[in-house]
């Protein structure tokens, strides 16, 4: 799944399949300007910053069990969001510091370091990632991803895929090759 925020006409947090299909709103009320998003892939939670409402909130992948992690004026200056173990990590553009926030109680907030300028934050760990299982976009015997001539996008599951073309090309009737 792909998760994203939108604060156009109606602010929301959404999810869709990697090919853009099955677009679903998971948060569409009491939300104004969601500017950063982070996923807890293990427990299937979505965290986001709302700089207008000055809050950090969380829901599960279906938009249930919504909770506010922390609220206050300091949220207005945060950009970027990452989750790792018991903490959320973000960057305060007002005082140029990396912050660590306890994601369970929101009260344990620590400044870890200062940076001159940042707009995003990511957490990387040294532990090796688990091997990915085979999926519909694996290369076929001819080396084409999922049998697609240009782009292969995972669909509703790891077993389904959609072929797409680069700008300027159109998908042929076979659903795999571009012209």
Automatic annotation (TrEMBL):
PROSITE patterns: LDLRB. This is LRP1B protein. Pfam families: Ldl_recept_b (PF00058). LDL-receptor class B repeats lie at residues 1-43. GO terms for cellular component: plasma membrane. It comes from Erithacus rubecula (European robin). GO terms for molecular function: Wnt receptor activity; Wnt-protein binding. Coiled coil: none annotated. GO terms for biological process: canonical Wnt signaling pathway.
């Amino acid at each position: 799944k792909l998760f994203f925020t939108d604060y156009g006409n109606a602010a929301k947090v959404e999810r869709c399949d990697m090919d853009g299909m099955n677009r679903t709103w998971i948060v569409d009320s009491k939300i104004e300007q969601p500017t950063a998003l982070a996923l807890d892939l293990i427990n299937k939670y979505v965290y986001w910053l709302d700089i207008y409402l000055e809050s950090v909130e969380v829901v599960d992948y279906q938009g249930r069990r919504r909770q506010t992690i922390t609220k206050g004026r300091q949220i207005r200056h945060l950009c970027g969001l990452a989750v790792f173990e018991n903490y959320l990590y973000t960057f305060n553009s007002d005082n140029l510091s990396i912050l660590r926030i306890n994601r369970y109680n929101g009260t344990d907030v620590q400044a870890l370091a200062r940076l001159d300028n940042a707009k995003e934050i990511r957490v990387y760990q040294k532990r090796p990632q688990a091997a990915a299982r085979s999926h519909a976009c694996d290369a076929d015997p001819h080396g084409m991803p999922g049998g697609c001539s240009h782009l292969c996008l995972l669909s509703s599951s790891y077993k389904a895929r959609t072929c797409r073309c680069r700008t300027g090309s159109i998908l042929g009737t076979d659903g795999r090759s571009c012209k």
